Structure formats: structure tokens, C-alpha cells
Amino acid sequence: MAKGNKIADIFINYSANIRYYISRIVRPEDIEDIVQETFIKSYEADLKQEIQYARSYMLKTAKNLALNHVQKWDNKYKDSLEDFCEPPVQLISQNFENEFESKERFLLFCKATDQLQGSVKKAFILKKVYGLSQREIANYLSLSESTIEKHVAKGLLTCSEYMAKAERDQFNKTETHSILSKGKKSL
User: Fold this and answer.
1) Into how many domains does the chain fold?
2) What is the pLDDT of residues 21-37, one digit of tens each?
3) Which domain range does residue 176 map to?
């Protein structure tokens, strides 16, 4: 049996136990994502060095991922009042520039998602914009979770390529304009 297949087989047989175990740590909507990440981390670790006690390793990995997830979530809501003080003027202007760039990137993202078709577009938007888990999306669209995973990956690739091309085109346009402006000044 190939290395990866052994881990996959153990994971398939043991994933219900992992789900149950981490269900006591994280919110129900986060369970599937953590279980999937557990498989990925276990698979990657096994490729580097054979895991002798795969079940224990997976359970420990799932527990650590779940605890890290809870820790990150808790830290989001533990800002002190000092964090909400008005920033210095310099930061305000930087925030304005960052906000402008952020809005430009968001518009570019919207144009990129318009390039997607059918269930790929729906799955991608439900995952990346609304933050639904793969299971929730699968139930909503009446598709399998593996199909949702493939749709989201395809959407991500397509949008990334679209946005990278648009940013290259914008950069080239800016460079050309800059070169032409310098040329006119020297005449």
C-alpha cells in the first residue's frame, strides 16, 4: 500500500471520531474545515516521514488546529479600548490610500468573479464572500463536497489569473504613460 493511501484510508475510517472530538472544541460550522485541514497536514507530514501512529497523530493535529482556531477567534474580540483611539494624522492619510487601493482591488475581484460560470461562480462566492463551509455549500447547491472543493479551487485560480493579468496591464499602462510623459517634456 502506498504511503498516501495508508493515511487516506485511516483518515476515512477515523474522520467521524475526529469530527466528534473537535466538536467539543469549535463551533459546528468550523468542524469540516478543521477536519479537512487535519487530513492535509497529516498527509503532508506522512510524505516527509512515515507516521507510525497515524490515528494518534491525526487526533493530536485536529486538537491543535481546533485550539488554534478558537484562540484566533477569541483574539479577534479582545481588543482593548486603547486600540480604538484616534490614530496620528500620518496613519489617517495612509489609511485613506490603503482604503482606496482596497476598493480598487475589491472592484477588480468583482470583475474577476463575473468571469466565472454557473455552479463554480456560486460555490466560489459562497465560500470566499459569505464564508460558508464546504458542507454548507454542498447542501445548499445539492452537490458533493468534493465537487464544491474543485469548484472553489477553479474559481480561485481563474480569479487570481484574471486579477494578475489586470494588474500587469495596469502597470504596463502606467509605465507607458510615464515614459511618454517624460518624452514630451524632453521635446
Assistant:
1) 2
2) 899 888 888 888 898 88
3) 107-186
Select from 22, 40, 69 the last residue of a domain.
69
Query: Is residue 182 situated within a structural domain?
Result: yes
Q: What is the CATH number of the domain that holds 24?
A: 1.10.1740.10
CA distance 4 to 19: 21
| Average pLDDT value for residue range 38-45 | 86
0.70 surpassed by pTM = no
The C-alpha atoms of residue 23 and residue 171 are separated, in whole angstroms, by 47
- The average pLDDT across 93-120 equals 75
In a domain, 82, yes or no: no
Q: Both 111 and 181 in a single domain?
A: yes
